[in-house]
Amino acid sequence: HCCMAYRTASWQLLDRGVAWVAQDQKYGPRPAQWMRLRHTQTGKLVFFVNHHGPIPINGGGVCGGASVAYNILTLVATKAQAGDAVILVGDFNSDPGSATIRGIESSLHRAYGGGIDFIFSNLEGPALDARSLGNGGSDHAAISAALQLP
């Protein structure tokens, strides 16, 4: 599974879950873990998804990259609610030209991308800050983006 954390002093967890959105031949089912949060001071709502994509890179797993994008966007459409700020992050194991990333970009804006790792949202305008944080002991660099909620 993917890991997610949030500041409990600032955010209230409304709902959470995991959907299996892809499958690869080596590791099997691949998750998109999600949570819906309400900011305790402003009442603003966020639907946050963390995904770890199938391998090999750009392969899209057993059913292909377009199906991965479709399954993730279907998860968002069925679990997020009107007015939610949608933020989708993860190691997609897909580069910018892949069917997975092109499919996701048909509905969400890319806030930042670094190789096979991406941050997407439904928010208008650019990220306030977006960058690579360098290698933190993983097989690729961590990325970060600051987004302005409406």
TrEMBL record:
GO molecular function: catalytic activity
One Pfam family matching this protein: Exo_endo_phos
Ranges of residues in domain Endonuclease/exonuclease/phosphatase: 54-140
Coiled coil: none
Protein name, as recorded: Endonuclease/exonuclease/phosphatase domain-containing protein
Organism for this UniProt entry: Zooxanthella nutricula
Taxonomic placement: Eukaryota, Sar, Alveolata, Dinophyceae, Peridiniales
